[in-house]
């Protein structure tokens, strides 16, 4: 009796069907959240500008150092603890410029460092007004999140509308558990 050896290929895994409707609903929900975040940002900007105008009317000037100017120290200390020192300093600089000048307050689109050569973070490339984020299919979630964060930070420098969207997307990364303490 002869036995015949047959090679048996493993059974192919069933294809997972992509649910475009579910994906579209997630996109729509996130767009709604982005719009809500933009509304909150707009309302905060209005309230900040009301206080800026009141300070200007009272002839208040904010000094250059938190150590010597109690108003600067109060603004800095009143900011939430979760904000990084660099972010707080950028906001204080923008408030100081608004109170001491004549222009309304606007949230900064990024620090001076981010606008310089250091802005070209690994994984984020800007060319011809385009922001591209390259992530390989085998990338770890941590690495992908870092590249996304770098690209979103680059978006902050692109303009008001993109800055609001980028801030929302960075918050979404943080909410998803991909907070980056070294960012910003």
Features of the shown structure:
2 domains; 184 residues; 2 strands; 4% strand; two-stranded antiparallel ribbon; mainly alpha
Q: What features would you describe in this structure?
A:
The protein is mainly alpha-helical. The chain has two domains: 33-108, no CATH class; 112-184, no CATH class. Helices cover 54% and strands 4% of the residues. It is built from six helices and two strands, in the order ααααββαα. The chain has helices at 20-57, 70-78, 85-100, 112-115, 141-156, 160-175; strands spanning 124-127, 130-133. The longest helix is centred in the first third of the chain and has 38 residues, at 20-57. The chain is elongated, with a radius of gyration of 24 Å.
Mean pLDDT: 78
Work out the strand percent.
under 5%
**Quaternary structure annotation:** single chain
Give the helix tally.
6
Helix percentage? 40-55%
- Gyration radius from CA atoms, angstroms: 24 Å
Number of domains: 2
Shape: elongated
H/E series: HHHHEEHH
- Main sheet properties: 2 strands, antiparallel
Query: Structural class from helices and strands?
Result: mainly alpha
Quick structural gist:
This protein has 184 residues and is mainly α. 54% of the residues lie in helices and 4% in strands.
Give the secondary structure arrangement, pairings included.
Blueprint: H1 20-57, H2 70-78, H3 85-100, H4 112-115, E1 124-127, E2 130-133, H5 141-156, H6 160-175
Antiparallel strand pairs: 1-2
Helix pairs in contact: 1-3, 1-6, 5-6
